[in-house]
Amino acid sequence: MNLKELYESGEDVRESQIPLEWLESFNHFIAGQTCYLVDNPDSDEKEFVYFSHDFRFWYNQNKAQIERDIKLSDVTKKLV
């Protein structure tokens, strides 16, 4: 699921769902915000989950760049 699909789902977002290229920006924004921990289904560790409204606020601040990257990724996949 890409960031736009996460945004449109309206669900809370797991840290593992944020692509690495956007993780630093998101972590910088989310510092000091409320989140919660859940069990990570892929390991024995816990994982941070961020509230949808916080994620959506960050997404809207970066919407143009995120959607540009999604379009570039889609075009690249079609060329391969």
Strand-helix topology:
Layout: H1 3-9, E1 13-14, H2 20-30, E2 35-39, E3 46-50, H3 52-61, H4 63-79
Antiparallel strand pairs: 1-3, 2-3
The amount of helix comes to: 55-70%
| SSE sequence, one letter per element | HEHEEHH
Summing up helix and strand content along with how strands pair, one would put the structural category as alpha+beta
By DSSP, the count of extended strands is 3
User: What integer value in Å does the Rg equal?
Assistant: 13 Å
**DSSP strand content:** 15-25%
- Strand adjacency order, main sheet: 1-3-2
Task: Return the average pLDDT rounded to an integer.
Answer: 93
The total number of structural domains is: 1
Overall body shape? globular
The protein's oligomeric status is single chain
Distance between the termini: 20 Å
- Sheet having the most strands: 3 strands, antiparallel
State the low-pLDDT regions, or none. Answer: none
Number of H- or I-type helical stretches: 4
Explain what you see.
This protein is α+β, with helices and mostly antiparallel strands. It has one domain. It is 56% helix and 15% strand. The protein has helices spanning 3-9, 20-30, 52-61, 63-79; strands at residues 13-14, 35-39, 46-50. The protein has a 3-stranded antiparallel sheet. A hairpin with a 6-residue loop joins strand 2 and strand 3 (46-50). The relative contact order is 0.20. The model has no long low-confidence stretch (mean pLDDT 93).
